[in-house]
Amino acid sequence: MLTTIQPVTHDLGAFQVRRVLPSPRRVMVGPFVFVDQFGPAIVPPGAAMDVRPHPHIGIATVTWLFEGAIDHRDSLGTFATIRPGQVNLMTAGCGIVHSERGLSAERDLPKPLYGMQTWLALPDGKEEIAPAFEAQTGLPLVEDSCVSARVIMGSLWGHTPPTTQHSPTIYAEIVLAPGGAIPLDSEAEERAVMLVGGEASVAGVALGLYELAVLAPGQAMKLTSERGGRVMLLGGAAIGSPRHVWWNFVSSSRERIEQAKDDWRQGRFPTVPGDEDEFIPIPQVPLTNSDSD
Using one digit for the tens of pLDDT, what is the confidence trace for 98-140? Predict the structure, then answer.
């Protein structure tokens, strides 16, 4: 009924990042090819999230915060401050560069940081579309006295937000009060849940904190909590062909990834206006790699 994937934790000093996809047990769930959870943490004065400019191809990145704020800049000229309740969807397509940093006005203050960073593989025929960016607020909220579920992408519980879907996708944040319960979509081809706070169970099976529980397809299931918890629901239609993941590059073609590596080394990607002075060099051995060679 459940296949559990343990996270790999990276300690960044001020906060921890836990990665469940890609993993040796499973590369993708629906279009989700990369799932990171970070925090909760209080980042001390003088420290901040500082992700220097870096490139992507073949994906759409989705940033979702529970607490805190992050400034996003990209090579399209976008500047956006990400806050809780706002989904940032950046479509890399044929190539984009972006940075993510803590707010400069808050650098000397203690500040919370708690959220999700996910990548969605673009489907066959759309891997090389033009890059784009959107920020959506006012997302549908499904709630009763014990449940509050925010629909971030796709159609769930009779609601569909305006967030772009490049392929059929479901993504939602579910907050359960003690005694809360909500049915989980059984129509999505692939789906998984991740407990990111408190406690919860699916079909009577307790979820492990920060683990990804991949659900059996086609089965009606209910998410419940005796003491309260926060859970992410994600999934959608499987991507048609396998994807290779190397560092920040995702593609159905290893040759395309090799081209992207060379393009970044040779400075052929566009720069980020307002953040041109720094960049992340291409690594010798990337932390994100689903290929064996």
Answer: 999 999 999 899 999 999 999 999 999 999 999 999 999 999 9
- CA–CA distance, 276 with 12 (Å, rounded to integer): 24
Q: What is the DSSP letter of 106?
A: G
| Angstrom distances, CA of residue 119 to CA of 56, 158, 220 | 10, 25, 26
Structure-block tokens of residue 204: 């009577």
Q: Is the peptide bond before 168 cis (omega within 30 degrees of 0)?
A: no
Amino acid at the residue 192: A
Cα–Cα distance, 172 to 188 (Å, whole number): 13
Q: Closest Cα partner for 175 from 144, 145, 204, 149?
A: 149
Q: Using an 8 Å Cβ cutoff, are 213 and 25 in contact?
A: no
DSSP3 helix / strand / coil % (the chain, rounded to 5): 5, 50, 45
